[in-house]
Amino acid sequence: MKNRFIVALIGILLVAAALIPNNVQASTGNESINEKLGLPIVVYGDALSEEQKSQVTELLEVGQHDEVDEFTVTGQDIANYIGGNPNSNMYSSVKILHKDNGEGLNIDIVSPDNITEVTKEMYSNALLTAGVENAEVFVASSVQVSGHSALTGIYKAYDAKGVTLDEDRMEVASEELDVATSIADEGVDEAEVSELLTEIKKAIAEQNPATKEEIEQIVEEQMNNLNIELSEEDRQRLIDLFEQMRDLNINFDNVKDQLDELTGGIQDVINDEGFWNKVSTAIQDFFKALADFFRSIFN
Question: CA–CA separation, 193 vs 266, rounded Å?
């Protein structure tokens, strides 16, 4: 009987292993330093307690790196970079891995339950507006927060490493994040908000509007294309936001491939109605295989 139990246990492990995707690999511990791209950067929110900071360190897997450049983002930073409230409590934290030119921008929210308002697509859109194009960014918080302060942490990280981001673009990117979360708060699906922002940017890149009226027309067209209805106030905030971008001469042609990729990812989220059916089927298949295995042993 003991031998049967051991065989059964091995069988469970084999079945479970078969369900793990092939591209998932175990951590190999410390990673070597990339001398070309520099050390990973970690920016902690200054309102974190020591215990909370320790939790964030684990969430961001800081221990897998031999060395990191570590910084703290404060309320004064949010005032300096985007004109925010210097008394703000900063909790959301980030880890940044620089990538080669052309590798693109990837955002991973590693504590999604604690970042309550900002989605990774919203971060991507805002960072592309600010001029951040080639990096892997991990966002985490040990307490529930909106996620806005992570953007300031990213700005500080780049500044501290001698990479100058345009101040006006940073402020517009922050306003973009505020507009996106505000529209989502009014009941529009977050993925649809991100898709709307992305499609407007792509249209601006293609049409190169010269007047505010042309910006307004692009906003209206994209809202209609996506069947999104907004209040007059939110609609006007969108128009004003992209009018600011037009005044800054942000060239979205430079990041059009990333915008296309971002749109594709958002569409996958919106259109994948069968996702949970697939999950359910996988679970059912797992337990069926498990039951068949046990029957083969004990019969």
Answer: 10
Round to whole Å and give the CA distance between 139 and 134.
Answer: 16
| Tens digits of residue pLDDT in 157-206 | 999 888 888 989 999 999 999 999 999 998 899 999 999 999 999 999 88
- Which whole number is the average pLDDT over 282-298? 52
Query: ∠ at Cα 62 (57, 24), nearest 5°?
Result: 110
Q: Which letter does DSSP use for residue 145 in this model? A: B
Burial letters 54-77, b for 16+ CB under 10 A, else e:
ebbbebbebeebeebeebbbbbeb
Q: Judging by DSSP bridges, how do beta strands 135-140 and 93-98 pair with one another?
A: antiparallel
Q: Are 278 and 19 in contact (CB under 8 A)?
A: no
Number of Cβ within a 10 Å radius of residue 45 = 28
Question: Do residues 132 and 104 make contact, with C-beta atoms less than 8 angstroms apart?
Answer: no
Residue 53's alpha-carbon distances to 46, 85, 112, 206, 212, in angstroms, are 9, 22, 17, 44, 45
- 8-state DSSP, 45: E
